[in-house]
Structures are given as structure tokens and as C-alpha cells.
Write a structure and sequence with these properties.
With about 450 residues, the chain is mainly alpha-helical. The chain has one domain: Na+/H+ antiporter like fold. The protein is about 65% helix and about 0% strand. It is built from 17 helices and no strands. Helix 11 packs across helix 12. The longest helix is centred in the middle third of the chain and has 33 residues. The termini are far apart.
């Protein structure tokens, strides 16, 4: 294709991406659905020449890995800045309002990994390492494509009449059924992308060493605990340091909040991820922790919204690129290795495994719906259903297949591509009507704690 064609295609798609959120907000169609379908159509035309990525090629796979990695990082920074509900590791009282999040992370995530891996190994005939890989890469919900069911942004769940001087650890958020659903899905997506990494590592270790059981102690102590703790520590320290600098630096030239310079969010993202990776911690967890710590500094300040807006625009641009390339790949060979087993695995995950494991997890000693962090029966169903799969899964499969040789790798790529597309379509159609029905239901205002 002539270079001018690339500019025309890029400009047209960017215009579509900018206009779609406003045009489609009343309909049961998400921008992600439209962008993905545009990519599929482009893949069937000569316009896709030079845009088809071959995941079997090391260079193309590395490109997919790095672009998806950056997109997830940007989304995690945005999610961390957007959450109004406080979380102070030194104040256990703040942990209770995150009750659904802990259940989704500690129970639903490993249960989902195990269920998909067992399905792949026992029913679909996959090798153990490949089955574990499939469960690991499809386990995390996505912070990138779930904007329709996430919180609105900094300050969106805090009433205007709340005093600005209220301490951060005192929860100021208004608690309704819809806001609790959005908070649970947002906080889960912010943390489980990083927490899925131990299971991806486990699949790589199985390929390298032949047996997971022989290295179980190392896996738990280092890949589950050690790297997670390092990630949290790096994120909190960098976030607090930058928050102190931006809001309380002695020199006015360093108080970036007064200048309204929103690029601090990107500087924080890159710095945190770089430091976390250097000390071998989980970078995804570190970036989310950094965003939360940065938000805790002067948490009602308008500066957080300015940073969030910049991050959100970059995320939208990167998402456009990924969805376009994924759509092109779907109609240009990525699904060649897909068979009935992949369709069964992807469909079962989206419609059965995720909803069931999340519902059961949220039903364990649930916090009542009348308090912040509580979910009633309908809210638990909604949170369980909206386990959107997306860019995080694409990153993990690219990373894993770059670090180890898995049997049936092409099949796993095809299954992941199908599952992401299926999730985008199913959840994209359901998000608007489900959330609108919940938000239109009259309800009393619950307690805050």
C-alpha cells in the first residue's frame, strides 16, 4: 500500500475512535466492538498489506508484546488514579471496603486458572504446560477494554458537598449498587493483571524444568510472594515520593500540581515500571500501587483529573492500534489454527467458568449490600459476568511464547484471539443495557463503612 494510504487509514480510524464513545453511549454497542470489526474488514482488503503481524515471527511477536505491555501499563495508571475509595496498608479499616476485590483476586483468579487448565488438559488433550499457559493468559480481566463498566474518573464517586480537608483514609465515596459494581470490576482489573504473572511463570517453569512440583517452594516464595512484595513496595515508595514532590516541594518550580503539568503521570508510570523491573518485582502491580499512592496525596485535588485525562487519551490511542491490528490478524491468518477445542475453551471461559468462579468467590462471607464494599445478589451476578478478556491476555501469551517453546503455541494464540474477540462482542453488547437497568433502579443510599 502507498504510504499515503497508511496516513489515510490511521487518520480515519483515529477519527472513528474519537467520535465513537459519544455516538454509541446510548446503544448496546461498544467502541471496542466497532474498532475490532473495522480491523476485520480492513484485513479482508488490500489496505492491510504491511499491517498483518505474524505471531510466529520473533520480531512481530516482540512488537505485539511491547505494544500490549505499554497499553496495559497506561491503563493501570489510569485505573489507579480513577479509584476514589481509599486503601491504606497501615489502616485495616480501609481494607474492608475492598472486600469484593480480595475475593476476586484470592479466590476467583486461581480458581479460573485451575478450571481452564483442567479443561484444557483433561478434556481437550493439551499438554500440561500448554493447558496451564492457557489458563494463566486467559485468567486476568482487562483494565483496557472494560471502560463501560469501570469507575468514571477521579472524584466521580465523591459527592460535591464532601469537605476537601477530609483525611484520605476516611471513605468519602457514595455507595450505590452500580458504583459498587464499577468499583469491584475496576479494582480487580487494576490488580489481577499483575497477579496473573505467577501463573504464567509457572507454565514457563514447567516447560523449562519438566515438573512444577519440584520447584513449587521456589515458585511460591519468589514468584508469588517475593516479586509481588517488591512490586508493591516500589510502587508505594515512588508514588509517595512523587506525590510529595508534586504537592509539597519547597521549590514552587517543582510543585507540578500548581503548574498543572499532567505528564507527571507518564513519568511516574515509566519510572515505577523501570525500577520494579530492575529489582525484579512485578511492574504491573508497581504501577497500580504507584497510581494509588500518588492519588492519596491531596486526593481531592483537580490535578489528578488532569493526569487521568492525559493517560486516558493515550490509552484510547494505543487501544485503537491494538484492536485494529487484532481485527486484521483475525481475518488474515491468526485463526487458522483454531478448532472446536479453542471455541469450547473460549466460550466456556466467558459464559461459564469466569461467571461461576467469580460468583462463588463473591458469595464467600460476603459483605452486606447496605455497606461500602458490599454486593447484593444482583450486583454479584453483574460483577461475575463482566470478566472482560483483552489486551492483558495478548501481552501474556506474547511474553510466554517469547520465553519458552510451548507445544500447540499457534493453537493457543488462535484460542486467545478468539476468546478476546468473543469477550469484546458479548460484553460490549451487554454492558450498556445491564448497567443502565441497574442505575435506573431506585435504591436507598447505603452506609459508607
Amino acid at each position: 500500500m502507498d504510504p499515503a494510504g497508511y496516513f489515510l487509514l490511521a487518520g480515519t480510524c483515529l477519527l472513528v475512535a474519537v467520535a465513537l464513545p459519544t455516538l454509541l453511549h446510548r446503544y448496546a454497542v461498544s467502541p471496542a466492538m466497532v474498532l475490532l470489526l473495522v480491523g476485520v474488514v480492513v484485513g479482508l482488503t488490500p489496505l492491510s498489506d504491511g499491517l498483518v503481524l505474524d505471531v510466529a515471527d520473533d520480531h512481530d511477536r516482540a512488537l505485539v508484546e511491547h505494544v500490549t505491555e505499554l497499553t496495559v501499563l497506561v491503563a493501570l495508571m489510569g485505573v489507579g488514579l480513577a479509584i476514589d475509595r481509599p486503601l491504606d496498608l497501615l489502616r485495616p479499616s480501609t481494607w474492608r471496603t475492598w472486600s469484593p476485590t480480595w475475593r476476586l483476586l484470592a479466590l476467583a483468579l486461581p480458581a479460573c486458572v485451575a478450571a481452564v487448565a483442567l479443561l484444557g488438559w483433561a478434556a481437550l488433550g493439551l499438554a500440561p504446560a500448554t493447558a496451564l499457559l492457557l489458563g494463566a493468559v486467559l485468567s486476568p480481566t482487562d483494565p483496557v477494554l472494560a471502560s463501560d463498566v469501570q469507575v468514571g474518573g477521579p472524584g466521580s464517586s465523591i459527592a460535591d458537598d464532601e469537605p476537601d480537608e477530609t483525611p484520605y483514609a476516611e471513605d468519602q465515596t457514595t455507595s450505590t449498587e452500580s458504583s459498587e459494581i464499577r468499583f469491584a470490576l475496576t479494582s480487580e482489573a487494576g490488580l489481577n493483571d499483575g497477579l496473573a504473572f505467577p501463573f504464567v511463570h509457572a507454565a514457563v517453569l514447567v516447560v523449562a524444568g519438566g515438573s512444577f512440583l519440584t520447584g513449587a517452594a521456589e515458585w511460591v516464595s519468589w514468584y508469588v510472594v517475593g516479586k509481588l512484595v517488591l512490586g508493591v513496595l516500589v510502587g508505594v515508595l515512588v508514588g509517595r515520593g512523587l506525590g510529595r514532590l508534586a504537592f509539597r516541594a519547597r521549590s514552587s518550580s517543582l510543585r507540578l500540581a500548581e503548574q498543572g503539568e499532567p505528564l507527571l503521570a507518564l513519568a511516574a508510570l515509566l519510572t515505577t515500571y523501570g525500577v520494579a523491573e530492575l529489582v525484579r518485582g512485578y511492574g504491573f502491580v508497581a504501577v497500580f500501587a504507584c497510581a494509588m499512592a500518588l492519588r492519596a496525596a491531596e486526593h481531592r485535588h483537580e490535578y489528578h483529573r488532569a493526569m487521568h485525562d492525559v493517560v486516558q487519551r493515550l490509552e484510547r490511542l494505543l487501544t485503537l492500534v491494538i484492536l485494529l491490528l487484532l481485527g486484521i490478524a483475525l481475518s488474515s491468518g491468526l485463526l487458522d489454527a483454531l478448532d472446536w477445542r479453542g471455541v469450547v475453551a473460549g466460550t466456556a471461559l466467558v459464559l461459564l467458568i469466569r461467571p461461576l468462579t467469580a460468583w462463588l468467590s463473591l458469595s464467600v462471607l460476603p459483605r452486606t449490600g447496605e455497606r461500602a464494599g458490599g454486593l447484593d445478589r444482583r450486583a454479584r451476578l453483574a460483577v461475575a459476568f463482566f470478566g472482560i478478556r483483552g489486551v492483558g491476555s495478548l501481552y501474556y501469551i506474547a511474553w510466554a511464547t517469547s520465553h519458552a517453546e510451548f507445544t500447540d503455541a499457534a493453537w493457543v494464540w488462535a484460542t486467545v484471539g478468539f476468546t478476546v474477540a468473543f469477550s469484546v462482542l458479548v460484553h460490549g453488547v451487554a454492558a450498556t443495557p445491564v448497567m443502565r437497568r441497574i442505575e435506573d433502579t431506585p435504591e436507598p443510599v447505603p452506609e459508607k463503612a
